[in-house]
Amino acid sequence: MTQGLCRFCKTCLKHTFVDLGMSPLSNAYVEEEKLNSVEKFYPLHAYVCEQCLLVQLEEFESPDRIFSDYAYFSSYSDSWLHHAKQYTELMVERFDLGRESQIIEIASNDGYLLQFFQTKGISVLGIEPAANVAQVAESKGIPTLVKFFGVQTGQELVQQGKQADVLLGNNVLAHVPDINDFVAGIKLVLKPEGILTMEFPHLLQLMERNQFDTIYHEHFSYLSFRTVDAIFASHGITLFDVEELPTHGGSLRIYGKHQENQTLPICDSPTEDSSRRIQNLKDKETQAGLDKIEVYSQFGSRTMETKRKLLSFLIEAKSSGKTIVGYGAPAKGNTLLNYCGIRTDFLDYTCDRSPHKQGLFLPGTHIPIFHPNKIAETKPDYVLILPWNLKEEICDQLSYIREWGGKFIVPIPRVEILE
Predict the structure, then answer these.
(1) Which of 74, 97, 117, 179 has its CA 20 to 30 A from that of 324?
(2) Alpha-carbon separation of residue 180 from 80, 196, 234, 297 (angstroms)
């Protein structure tokens, strides 16, 4: 059955990528006094466009509803802060950035990244639609515009004389329902010789590593390099380099410039190495079958197998009298728990370092969220790591559970027990 039009090329969508049933918004955490109120669930059904091969969800809620008051604050992950600092050092060195440069970040969150440019005396501007998150950035002295980004915001910035030498966005490209408007806005705000960088989870890694839990309503699109390259090219932006990153289970960092820009601003024009990286990545995606619609339809069966294996382990553990708790309250965790039907009958609670989530309950499953100290108090037999992409960081932080024989459960790409 046809389900709307592709958000990029407007082709009718009729091919299923994966159907994860019904789920609430993954960042719609529930207050205790609202636990008995009606909670909205929406289809979590991803389609793939037969024309451009963009994997995508239908839009059921507006970005205003999803992002205006947001529970995710980037600064609570030590490894993500380290990643942001490394990025800053790389960009300053590669493109010779200095006090005359203007850095603009789209979806700048709580200033987790711009703070590192600012300490170098480089002018920064954040654009962040969630007012509660932007307020934290402002408190750090990072100027932040509370707006959604697109053509309208781009035009306003240009009228104010604000354009970027470096325009960046980490984990935002997947979050925009109108991807054409978003990229057209980028075209406006980027200076004639400016550099664009964007990071986003790589669809190839999602498929090969069975990362179905990264599918949730806040992510409208799931992106391969071939599709992203086509989207940016259609708006006059050339991708001249790409890096494969380990973040979020496997991401890409793309580098873009205006098609009219024949030379990069310094001396770092596209090299044989960058051209080779792009071609190697295109070849890798082709070898994996990402140019064939049939390959996408095979993904759903793997998610069902993972669900069965995780539930089988949890049932056996609980039947043996074991106690199990969660660690983290990430959006991906809420997809996993709701799809698998895991509630307080399996997990006593979960915990999170962010005080903005503590005292709330997970959407759909209503599992309570506590401070991580709760683990030392209750001494569970197993800790299910929901943000599995941070498993090394979390295992290090919670290494003390081994004192009473506690073990970690990592659910993705397959159920794994870490002692």
Answers:
(1) 74
(2) 28, 16, 9, 26
The pLDDT of residue 23: 95
The pLDDT of residue 267: 38
Cis peptide before 330 (omega within 30 of 0): no
Q: Give domain status of residue 60, yes or no.
A: no
pLDDT on residue 68:
54
**Residue 306 and residue 285 share a domain:** no
Q: Please choose, from the candidates 194, 245, 211, 203, the residue with its C-alpha nearest in 3D space to the C-alpha of residue 227.
A: 203
CB hemisphere CA count around 267 (13 angstroms): 1
The rounded average pLDDT for each run of 10 residues, N- to C-terminus, in the chain (419 residues) is: 80 95 92 95 96 92 60 68 93 93 94 94 94 90 94 97 96 93 98 96 95 93 97 97 91 96 58 82 97 93 92 97 97 96 97 93 98 97 95 94 97 93
Which 3 state secondary structure label does DSSP give 270?
Answer: coil
Q: Are residue 347 and residue 410 in the same domain, yes or no?
A: yes
Element (H, E) at 229: helix 225-233
pLDDT given at position 59: 81
> In the prediction, which pLDDT does 66 show?
57
Output the domain CATH number for residue 393.
3.40.50.720
> Looking at 147-262, which runs of residues are DSSP E strands?
164-170, 190-201, 221-222, 237-245, 251-258
Using one digit for the tens of pLDDT, what is the confidence trace for 355-379?
989 999 999 999 999 999 999 999 9
Q: Could you tell me if 303 and 358 lie in one domain?
A: yes
Q: Exposed, middle or buried by CB within 10 Å (0-12, 13-18, 19+), for 374?
A: middle
Following DSSP, what letter does each residue of 78-126 receive, concatenated? Answer: HHHHHHHHHHHHHHHHHTT--TT-EEEEES-TTSTTHHHHHTTT-EEEE
Q: Report CA dihedral (308, 309, 311, 316) to the nearest 10 degrees.
A: 130
HSE-up of residue 335 (Cα within 13 Å, Cβ side): 23
Count how many domains the chain has.
Answer: 2
The pLDDT value recorded for residue 2 is: 44
Kind and range of the H or E element at 336? helix 331-340
Domain end point (choices 237, 262, 293): 293
Interatomic CA distance for residues 374 and 367, integer angstroms: 14
Is 159 part of any domain? yes
Within-domain flag for 52? no
Between CA 368 and CA 376, with CA 370 as vertex, the angle to 5 degrees is 125
Indicate whether 40 belongs to any domain.
no
* DSSP reduced 3-state for 139: helix
Quote the domain boundaries for residue 348: 299-418
